[in-house]
Design goal:
alpha+beta; OB fold (Dihydrolipoamide Acetyltransferase, E2P); eleven-stranded mixed sheet; five-stranded mixed beta barrel; 20% helix; elongated; binds zinc ion
């Protein structure tokens, strides 16, 4: 009788700014495991970890593969994985420290889930990762310092039972990597029109830019993000690529869910590197600092903190500039530590104005005798009418309420081109995926056979 084992495999930190991508390594592993008769119980999981950690990998995404296979094949499966990770990691790069975690288990224990949550919302230490892995009898393999073990273990522990999205990633053939990506722009706009909001952030309408294609030397040709596996596959078929696609894979992911943001009770609880949702009242008005960034302060009874909206956040920055003192405000964003003369700052990804303060404009009163607007004779010296000579020290300026260009309770979000992987875009509000069981579509990855035969591995 065959004894089937469920194996969860976490992988992280294989790439560098000059090459590679951990999703690509996972895409290479998938067909090899299937040829061992492994059966996947989930799409490969792409788990984005806290984007504000100072030592992040590009995009800070870790991978988890979850499958069942015959106990007799486990060693071979592990060997395939270790070999492909080693071959496809940029080990010569100083910051690249790959890690792999093998966890054979039917269930994911709660302490591992808690560890993942901490890695997505805060900071976790290597020591804690190793202690936890060993207490769970998970096998951790690290290259060089093995810092990637942290992300690998975190990916295993995040099973995406709550809100999640999908991304179909298509990869370039090796000879094209590093060159300009050849994807027909019109076809992307057309795809967006036909598939949104079941797909999201394909294009940035404000700047007219295509967002599915990255710009670096990595192997990704494009990534299409969406609500369901079917939606991203359908969209993939609409995109016209003018260069060959080596392979494509559908990932299930915490992207676009705000999983990194933790609501905290008070400004005094804001910690550097921990993304937050925090409320306060605008205490210092917005000022424009060099490079057109907007900075202001919010305070509650316990503290005060700076908030910043950067130039590439587009509309968010323009809206932040409209805030005035006493507006009641909710900030969403990463927390940058103090540096030089800049205090700890929340880098805004989105915000909401809970209550707008009254904005008043003061004008000189009208002459009670002839109706003409009075002139001021200087601070505290009263007013004088140029026409009839009326003077008074007792008359006051008139206050007029100015209408505001912000709406109460409305959420303002950075433009798609500057959204982080984890930022939940406006188009996903009300479309959250919660609690649906995972249904694997028949085709969830593809390999260009012709290219595959020509490759030497
Ligand atoms: Zn007058």
């Amino acid at each position: 009788m065959r004894l089937m084992i469920t194996l969860h495999v976490g992988i992280d930190d294989t790439d560098s700014p000059r090459t590679g991508c951990t999703t690509y390594v996972a895409s290479l592993i998938v067909p090899k495991l299937l040829s061992l008769d492994a059966s996947f119980i989930d799409y490969p999981n792409l788990i984005r970890l806290n984007p504000n950690v100072p030592w992040k990998t590009r995009g800070n995404g870790a991978l988890c593969l979850r499958f069942k296979c015959d106990k007799a094949c486990v060693d071979e499966a592990k060997a395939i994985i270790v070999n492909l990770v080693e071959k496809n990691s940029d080990l010569d790069h100083p910051g690249t420290e790959p890690g792999i975690v093998f966890f054979p288990s039917e269930t994911i224990p709660s302490q591992l889930r808690a560890f993942s949550k901490q890695a997505i919302q805060g900071i976790v230490k290597m020591k804690d990762a190793l202690t936890l892995a060993s207490s769970l009898s998970a096998e951790a393999i690290g290259f060089k310092t093995g810092r990637g073990i942290i992300g690998a273990l975190a990916a295993v522990g995040e099973t995406l039972v709550g809100d999640h999205t999908y991304e179909l990633i298509a990869y370039r053939v090796p000879s094209n990597r590093g060159t300009k990506r050849q994807v027909d722009k019109e076809s992307v706009f057309e795809m967006d029109k036909k598939t949104a909001p079941l797909t999201y952030n394909n294009v940035d309408h404000e700047s007219g830019r295509v967002l599915i294609t990255p710009h670096g030397p990595d192997p990704i040709l494009y990534g299409i993000r969406g609500q369901t596996a079917d939606a991203v596959k359908k969209a993939h078929l609409m995109v016209r690529s003018l260069e060959p696609v080596e392979r494509w894979t559908i990932f299930r992911t915490n992207q676009g869910t705000d999983a990194h943001l933790r609501s905290i009770p008070s400004i005094k609880n804001v910690e550097p590197y921990h993304p937050v949702i925090v409320k306060g009242t605008v205490s210092r008005p917005p000022r424009i600092i060099p490079r057109r960034h907007v900075v202001f302060s919010i305070a509650d009874g316990n503290g005060q903190i700076d908030c910043a909206a950067y130039e590439p956040t587009g509309d968010l920055r323009r809206k932040a500039a409209e805030l005035i003192v006493d507006d009641s405000f909710e900030a969403y964003g990463g927390v940058r530590p103090a540096s030089g003369n800049r205090p700890v700052t929340v880098n805004l990804e989105k915000f909401r104005v809970l209550h707008l303060a009254e904005k008043l404009a003061f004008t000189n009163p009208l002459c009670p005798r002839c109706g003409r607007r009075l002139g001021s004779m200087g601070a505290g010296k009263g007013f004088r009418c140029e026409k009839c000579g009326f003077r008074s020290r007792d008359i006051r300026k008139e206050a007029k309420v100015i209408s505001r260009d912000l709406k109460e309770e409305k959420l303002y979000v950075t433009s798609p081109r500057s959204q982080r992987h984890l930022t939940k875009p406006l188009s996903r509000y009300g479309l959250e995926n919660n609690g649906q069981p995972v249904r694997m579509r028949r085709q969830w990855f593809g390999v260009n056979d012709k290219l595959e035969r020509g490759r030497s591995e």
